[in-house]
Amino acid sequence: MMAEGNRASPKGFVEGTVHVDVKDYYGKRLTNTSDLQSNACVAPAQPIPAFIRQALKRVHPEVTARYYGCGLVVPECLEGCRILDLGSGSGRDCYMLSQLVGEKGHVTGIDMTEDQLKVARTYVDYHMQEFGYKKPNVSFVQGYIEALTQAGLEKSSFDIIISNCVVNLSPDKRRVLAEAYSVLKDGGELYFSDVYCSGRLTEEIKTHKVLWGECLGGALWWKDLLQLAEEVGFSPPRLVTANVITVDNKELQDVLGDFKFVSATYRLFKVPKGNTKSCQVIYNGDITGVEDSFQFDCQYTFKAGEVVGVDEEVASILTHSRFAEDFTFQPPGGPHGPCGVRHKAGIVDPFELVLHLEKQSPGSATGGCCSTQSAACCK
C-alpha cells in the first residue's frame, strides 16, 4: 500500500501525504498523551458506567499509556456482536470491548500505524488469559480506514463499527463512510465520535500539519456529514452527544481564527428506507448498563416499560437493527397509549445543542471525543 505522491490508483486506495504525516505524528512524535500540542484531544472528566470502568482497569498499562484517543465511544447492546474499531491505535478500546462482546463476539482493530499496532498485538495473549477466554476474540489489521475491503475485511461482516476522533484524520471522508457501509451487515451501525467545525475550513488550516494531528485541521463541517451519509446510503445521522472544544494554544488559535469546533457522537445505520411507518415502542429494559433508561440519541430516551412514539426513521432503525428484540412495537394510538406519535425535528445543529444544554446544566460533562473545558450531554 505504498504510494508515490498523492495519486490515486484505479485498483484501489493509495496512501497520500496526509497519511504519511499522520503516521509520523502518532507513531514517532507522540510517545504519550502529554506530548499532544493542544487540548483538543484530551478527554474530559466524565461519568463512566461502572462496568466499563472495570473493563478498562483490566487493560494492560502500556496499552493505555500509548492510547491517544479521546473520551470513550461505547454503544449499547454489544453481547455477541462483531465490532470493528477504525483507527484502533494501541488497542485500548478493543480490549475493553473484548470483555463487553464476550467470548462469542469478536473485535477487530484496524490502524495504519505500525508502532501502534505493535503495542496492540504484543498483549493479545495477556488479555485473553486475563479475561479467561480459551481463544482470542480480538485481532488487529494494518490498513487504511478508506480501504477496509482492500485490507482484507469482508463485506457485510460487522454488526457495529466504532471510531473515536479518527475520521477527521482522513482526507477522503466520503470514502471512509462508503467503506464502512460496505463492511457493515444489514441493520448494522456506525457509532462514532469526531470533531466538526462551524464551516468549511480554509486551505491554510487544512494543510497545517499540527492541526491535522491534533484533530482540528481535518474537521468536517457538520452539515457536510449529513450530505455524505445520504450519498453513501446510511440513514440520516442521529446526534447522540455534543461537546465544546476549546483551544488554549494561542499560536494555533490565531491560525484557526473565528472557526468554532465541537465534538459530536453520531449513529448511522444501514437500514431500508421508506418502508417503515411511525409507531409506538416500549423498551423492555434488558440492555446491559441501561436497564432503566436507554438514551438512543439527544431526541429520544426510552424508559423501561414506557410507551414512546417514534417517527418513521427511528422506527425503521429499531425494527431492522440489533435493537429489534429489545422493544415491543405497536401502531400509533395502540392499546398501551392513547396519544399519537411525537414527531421530532429531524436535524439537530450540534453547536446549538451544546448551547442549549449548557444553559440547562452548566458545567456538565459527557463522554464524547476530544472535548475539553466544558461539555454537555443530551438527556
From TrEMBL:
It catalyses: arsenic triglutathione + [thioredoxin]-dithiol + S-adenosyl-L-methionine + 2 H2O = methylarsonous acid + [thioredoxin]-disulfide + 3 glutathione + S-adenosyl-L-homocysteine + H(+); arsenic triglutathione + 3 [thioredoxin]-dithiol + 3 S-adenosyl-L-methionine = trimethylarsine + 3 [thioredoxin]-disulfide + 3 glutathione + 3 S-adenosyl-L-homocysteine + 3 H(+); arsenic triglutathione + 2 [thioredoxin]-dithiol + 2 S-adenosyl-L-methionine + H2O = dimethylarsinous acid + 2 [thioredoxin]-disulfide + 3 glutathione + 2 S-adenosyl-L-homocysteine + 2 H(+). The keyword Cell wall biogenesis/degradation does not apply. It comes from the Eukaryota. Its EC number is 2.1.1.137. It is an enzyme of class 2 (transferase). CDD domains: AdoMet_MTases (cd02440). Keywords: Methyltransferase, Transferase. Gene3D superfamilies: 3.40.5.100, Vaccinia Virus protein VP39. One of its GO terms (molecular function) is arsenite methyltransferase activity. InterPro entries: Arsenite_MeTrfase-like, Methyltranfer_dom, SAM-dependent_MTases_sf. Residues 79-233 form the Methyltransferase domain. GO terms for biological process: arsonoacetate metabolic process; methylation; toxin metabolic process. Pfam families: Methyltransf_31 (PF13847). One of its GO terms (cellular component) is cytosol. Belongs to the methyltransferase superfamily. Arsenite methyltransferase family. This is Arsenite methyltransferase.
